[in-house]
Amino acid sequence: MEYKKIKLSEITDQKVGDNTTVEFYRLENSGEVRNEPHPAMIVVPGGGYAWCSRREAEPIALRYCSEGFNCFVLSYSVNVTYPLPHFELSILFRYVYEHADELCIDKNNISIVGFSAGGHLCASYGFLYPEFAKQLGCDPNIIRPHTIVLAYPVASTIMETNSDTKKIITGGSEELAKKLSGPENVTSEYPPTYIWTTKVDQCVPMEHSVQMAEALKKHGVAYQFDLFDFGVHGGSLCNRAVYAPDFNFDEVAPNRMWIENSVNFIFKK
How far apart are CA 194 and CA 95, in angstroms? Predict the structure, then answer.
């Protein structure tokens, strides 16, 4: 596998955050494995828009790599209001699309996965990307996700959570809260979406995911929603790679299937 970490500013002339980085995880092609373009996954960690969780970065990229994806982890700008984090995602998306040949990427199969606040970023990007296409001067289809994967997302900025996610990204603006809220802005053009969360999430209530799933269903968007019985917020892979040794692994064992379920959903689209 090839790994490298760069600043986002190295691949764009647009104004981005000084500390915004991209990590590349690219599979090696050889005679023993597939020697054809791979699907791509852009990984967007959570952290309440105040930081970017490492538990939702490299472990996720490596797991998707094991399923045949080339992955890109975006550590976006934090403690800033909209639109900078979303714009940074659009810049990375365009870069992956336009450099698909050298990155050995299937440009028609570039997806995004977001966790918690990163889930909000991805969920809202799913209807906002045409705005960023105008800023970038490109066809919106170039930066439209093949599939969106949402893990215990802050899907709504109308509903409350136990974090400052909404406050940070909106700056307290109710107008922005309405603009950035997923369930209220889904249309029939929204990308296919896989969602998972747990019934006992005390940080971001499951109703965020439930409302997002209901909006997708209402507008005829292809989706899958997995609601697990147990598991605290921030479950990530729900295994020993991301949890302390004294954690109750048996309790969240069923949750681990979310990655495989999301992969199967992606390849059905």
Answer: 24
